[in-house]
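Project outcomes to date are best conveyed with an example. Our students and postdoctoral researchers have been running inverse folding experiments weekly, and each run begins with a structure described purely in tokens. The record below, which covers 67 residues, was selected by the lab manager from last quarter's runs and is presented without edits.
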């Protein structure tokens, strides 16, 4: 499951990028960035995007067995 969190890196509290929590990648708001496009698709499909001040819940979902 991919989760995203908006983050701020400036004192004016403007969102600067989105963090992909699976690998802590900082994805810039750039329409030509494929990771940003994946984020937009995830968000459009109703995926949860956490705010900068929200706590991320611990999700203990086991991986499926190898086939």
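After processing, the design step wrote out the following sequence:
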């Amino acid at each position: 499951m991919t989760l995203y969190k908006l983050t701020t890196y400036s004192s004016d509290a403007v969102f600067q990028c989105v963090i992909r929590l699976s690998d802590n990648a900082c994805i810039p708001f750039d329409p030509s960035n494929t990771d940003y496009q994946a984020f937009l698709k995830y968000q459009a499909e109703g995926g949860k995007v956490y705010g900068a001040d929200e706590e991320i819940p611990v999700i203990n979902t086991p991986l499926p067995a190898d086939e």
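The two ends are 19 Å apart (CA to CA). The mean pLDDT is 77. The training component of this project remains on track.
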